[in-house]
Every structure is written in structure tokens, then in C-alpha cells.
Amino acid sequence: MAVVLESLATLSVLGLGTAQRNISAALVVVAQNFQDPDVLTILLVGALVMLAALMVAGGELDKRTAREQSRPVQSAESAND
Question: Which of 4, 36, 66, 72 is most buried, taking the most CB atoms under 10 A from its CB?
Fold first, then answer.
């Protein structure tokens, strides 16, 4: 059970990191294709808002994982008794 929870925590962290990784690619596209500085500003503000939302989501996932790890593991033999 601990292996499953550990891999679940790893997948959660990887998922949150994946949500934030394409900001640099978006910055390259904006810098090469748009002359209006407001586009860059909107992109950066959006990235900061997304980072804040991901931090909140990460905290909630951490709480959920901690609850799952503190729950006692019931073996199959004791479940049949």
C-alpha cells in the first residue's frame, strides 16, 4: 500500500510541474510574433496566477496524501474475518 501511495504522490508532483513547464515556450512565441507589450504582460500575469493556483492545489494534494498514509492498512485476511 505504501508503494502505491508513494507513486501517487510522485504522480501528483509531476502533474503539477507539467502544468507550469510550457511558460518558457509561450514566452518565445510571444517575443517573436507580437509587438504589443500587453501580450507579454498578460502572459506573465497568467503564469503567476497559475502558479498560485498550483500551489493551492499542491497543498490540498499534500493534505489528501497525508490522510491516506495515516489510515491503517487492512490486510485481506483480516477483511475476511
Answer: 66
